[in-house]
UniProtKB/TrEMBL annotation:
Main location: membrane
InterPro entries: Na/K_ATPase_sub_beta, Na/K_ATPase_sub_beta_sf
GO BP terms, alphabetized: potassium ion transport; regulation of DNA-templated transcription; sodium ion transport
Top-level taxonomic group: Eukaryota
Annotated transmembrane regions: 73-99
Annotated protein name in UniProt: Sodium/potassium-transporting ATPase subunit beta
Species of the source: Crocodylus porosus (Saltwater crocodile)
Subcellular location: Membrane
């Protein structure tokens, strides 16, 4: 009896001969099964692979498409439809709340608005104004641009849409911010020789071009802090004698205070920016002459070298005869 127990105990030990035989048999069975699967896979033809793909795309026996039944596809599509519908609704709600915080007439934050920049007209081929007096086709684009820009400044249009204001003081209009504001008249005739009325070519046909200068609009900005902002032009680099004569219109060469403040395009619908015209009556011909025009006044910044439009603008003449 003790000998049988000892024999059974020995058979159950991991290192016994009986256990080793069983392990070898199991390993041989695994190897044979693996070899059988590899043999089956090796015997698959392209036809079998294509057929399996067809069955995956549509299995007529189980009526599945890509492994899913119609009910399964319906449920998953419904889930994603509801999910993205909720996301779209949440996004729309956030946008709606944000819009409620915005003022349609005045920007909420204006603490980073810099002093005004300036721009010129005509603006056709950049800031190099090059033409030949003897070739009208070279300067007609500048003339057409000037007439198009000044159409809103026609005297008849200004009298019809805008009112006469008291010069030398701000035209402050209080009351409901949604109420439409009136605009002061700036008649084209104020530009005199650069109005295009007496000389429809603005001097370009004689090699004496006119340039219009305007300040960029800033809502609520009171230019000059009580003193009109003036304009000055000179040669930027080179010989000062390259620019011998320039006339300004209005002759005060200033932007009158009555055109400020600006209340925005929604309520200041007929507003036309005031202009200062520069009539370059004597500029060196057949050469490039860089001109810099600057604003001068309280609160004006015109010496930032990396911003060529802040309080100043640089353009170049190349007038051929």
């Amino acid at each position: 009896m003790d000998m049988n127990a000892t024999s059974r105990g020995a058979e159950g030990q991991p290192g016994s001969p009986h256990q080793k035989r069983e392990n070898k048999q199991g390993q041989r069975m695994q190897n044979s099964g693996r070899e059988g699967r590899e043999e089956v896979m090796a015997k698959k033809t392209w036809t079998d692979v294509i057929q399996e793909m067809k069955n995956f795309l549509w299995d007529p026996e189980n009526r599945t498409c890509l492994g899913r039944t119609a009910k399964s596809w319906g449920l998953i599509l419904l889930f994603y439809f509801i999910l993205y519908l909720c996301l779209a609704g949440l996004f729309a709600f956030c946008i709606y709340i944000m819009v409620l915080t915005l003022n349609p007439y005045t920007p909420t934050y204006r603490d980073r608005v810099a002093p005004p920049g300036v721009m010129i007209r005509p603006y056709v081929r950049g800031f190099t104004i090059a033409f030949n007096v003897s070739e009208s086709s070279s300067w007609l684009p500048y003339v057409d641009s000037m007439h198009h820009f000044l159409a809103a400044y026609n005297d008849t249009v200004q009298v019809e849409k805008n009112i006469e204001c008291i010069a030398g003081q701000y035209f402050i209009q209080e009351g409901d911010e949604s109420k439409q504001k009136r605009a002061c008249q700036f008649k084209r005739s104020l530009l005199q020789n650069c109005s295009g009325i007496e000389d429809p070519t603005f001097g370009y046909s004689r090699g004496q071009p006119c340039i219009l200068l305007k300040m960029n609009r800033i809502i609520g900005y009171q230019a000059g802090a009580g003193t009109p902002v003036s304009v000055d032009c000179r040669v930027q680099k080179g010989n000062e004698s390259d620019l011998r004569s320039v006339d300004f219109y209005p002759q005060s060469r200033t932007f009158d205070l009555m055109y400020y403040p600006y209340y925005g395009k929604h309520i200041h619908v007929n507003y036309t920016s005031p202009l200062v015209a520069m009539h370059f009556t004597d500029v060196k011909k057949n050469d490039f002459v860089p001109i810099q025009c600057k604003l001068n006044g309280k609160g004006i910044v015109n010496d930032v070298h990396n911003d060529r439009f802040l309080g100043r603008i640089i353009f170049t003449f190349n007038i051929g005869m």
